[in-house]
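User: Show me a protein chain along with its predicted structure.
Assistant: Here is one chain, sequence first, then structure tokens.
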Amino acid sequence: MSELNNIALKILSNGKGILAADESTGTMTKRLKSVNVESTKENRLLFRETLFSSESMKKCIGGVILYDETIKQNSNSKKTIPELISSSGAIPGIKVDTGAKVLAGSPEEKITEGLDGLRERLKEYYKLGARFTKWRAVYKISNDYPSKLSIYSNAHALARYSALVQENGMVPIVEPEVLMDGEHSAEECFNKTSEVIKKCYEELIKHKVDLKGTILKPNMILSGSSSKNNIDTKKIAELTLKCLKGSVPTEVPGIAFLSGGQSEKEAAKNLNSINLMNDTNFIMTYSYGRALQQSALKFWSKDINNIKGTQDTFNHRAKMCSLASQGKWSEDIEKK
């Protein structure tokens, strides 16, 4: 078994998933403002460090995706942030794209940038302790989108990124996110997501990426957020599994879903339904940002020095996601 495959399995196995704490400073500022906390470097670090030193890190979190600012910070215990994460048995990771920009030739769509200078940045991140990385591509759904140009351009960038990451001894998370925004049906989401994922793997294979040393971070198959035709959790699970079985090569060790605008409870409930029906060899787990942090952030904002209460709130959420990744979540446990 390759070292990269070992890393991927360590992140995803045994009811563990990924804490996505890689919000850019701009996004983190919006999150903090929404709960009336000033976005200073110290406050951003305090909230993240509170989560990273919580008890559930040992049982529920296999990897943490960091932002450039955070991976270079020291915790209050004088450990570096990667050392703090590693001390709980989780693996530090890093977001390496530089954001989604307007796609030339299709200005309504986005292309993710960040390939320039990536090889050098990866070497630095490896020295800082990162062992996996993340690159997110975004696609919108409408009658005309995503266009072939968007699907191809983003798949090509994801493949080039993945090849460079593996060259530097790290596991790439491949994140093609078909956005929830819009009035589209779940069937349209299924068709577009299948096309997007298939093209990503075509490009990854062309670029000689070792698929056993990658993790896929896709959206679940959902109706658009403005759609009048919402589907139940069983149908979400059926369509999501059908999409992944038809699009993802069997060598990929695991799939860590993004929450993509779902509430904390929806993200757990739908992941649980997927695992109750999972008849594949793929590990199906979570790579959640807001769906792991939102309750903890709200609690913390009332008193940023109440570390224990914030950690208790986060521990409950992480436990719910961990149970969902094993098909063991229920409404009753959620309420406890």
